[in-house]
Amino acid sequence: MPDSGDTTTVQWDSALEAIERCYELGWTDGLPVVPPTEQRVGEFIERSGRPGEEVVGEIPERRREITVAKVAANAVMAGCLPEYMPVLLTATEAMLDPVFNLVGPSSSMGGSAILSIVNGPICKELNINSRNNLFGPGNRANATIGRAVRLVLMNACAAIPGVFDRSVIGHPGKYTYCIAEADTETHWTPLHVERGFSADQSTVTVFAGESPRQVRAVGHPEPILIALSDVASSLGSNMSTSGSVGDTGIGVRQGQIVVTIAGNSNLWKDWTKAQVREFVHARTQRSVADLKAAMVLKGDPEPGDAETMISLIPEPDDILLIFAGGEESNMSSVIPSWGPKVGSTAVTKLIR
Amino acid sequence: MHDGIHVENAGIPSATICTDRFVPTAQGMAKMWGAPDYPTIFTPHPIENLSREALRTRAEELAPQVVRVLTGEG
Lengths: 352, 74
Prior knowledge:
Chain A is α+β, with helices and mostly antiparallel strands. Chain A has helices spanning about 15-25, 40-50, 70-80, 85-95, 120-125, 140-155, 190-195, 220-230, 275-285, 290-295, and strands at about 55-60, 65, 115-120, 180, 205-210, 215, 255-260, 285, 310, 320-325, 330-335, 345-350.
């Protein structure tokens, strides 16, 4: 049953008892949480430099106002350090931006996780991993910031599994989904600079994504991009299903994608991010014949169907390309969006 | 659910139809907005892929319930 979102104060006598009590109160993602004592939450609020009662954003449909204090409580529970607060507050602000349309990706049967991509000097300051095991475990900042985003969604935004989160198969990234771009290790323009910020600023970009699909290819630019585009064009993604939302005239739900490319930046010396995007955009498409066979498009087969292609991504700029991942050039990844771009658009906000 | 409850609160009779997979979600939203007894009409899931004819048939089956809810006899 959904709670009111009000603050609850409870007493406990030991840490283990407190952890169990947090389970009973329905505050966890299934893993144990750090008990959010008043003192610890207070430290996190103080570190944020903002008043606890300040409203970060709201979900009017669910009667929820998300305050700095609520974000702090969930940051504590997730195991964050106090200095992560500015990142988490920015991620929260970004996902509560109207164009992100949080009610969609946080409730949909399609099921997304909110990916946070951190850019700028703060990545080094907080040791947010952008290299080996990019989406994997082992690094506190990535693990706990991503987890805190999910706890904010569940506890503060009422994205309660089975009630307002109606995802059919869920998503491992819903436990934690936070990465950084290795923006000082490449000649490519960092994502946040492409999106209007300066290199010395730090930002969080939020994206409602499916799970990352690993792409293995021969370690040269064109084979990597051909393989990436092939994976991005697969049937069965959100982007290659029927366009029941937005511009239904196109026939598919055109959406944004995140692409991670890693390895040695020198491999890409003859390529700009814009050129990569053009290449991938032009190939992320599917024939009318394939879409009809999968009943994404209605109608009987017609001559020319095999040659008539439908793009799955609106524009090249809807490819969020970041330099991130391990040191091997043959592994990259594609993350299709949860929904059509009109249903949720990636948002980048400045970390203050 | 959200819109139906708000329309009703504005003094305009409303009837909301949900597919039956969303019973807990509908009840959760009704409670959240202080209207736990809001009379929701449930129909088998899904309706997205119904043909035009099947959708019309479904609507005809539901119409009497919609009338009862709108006239306060639901």
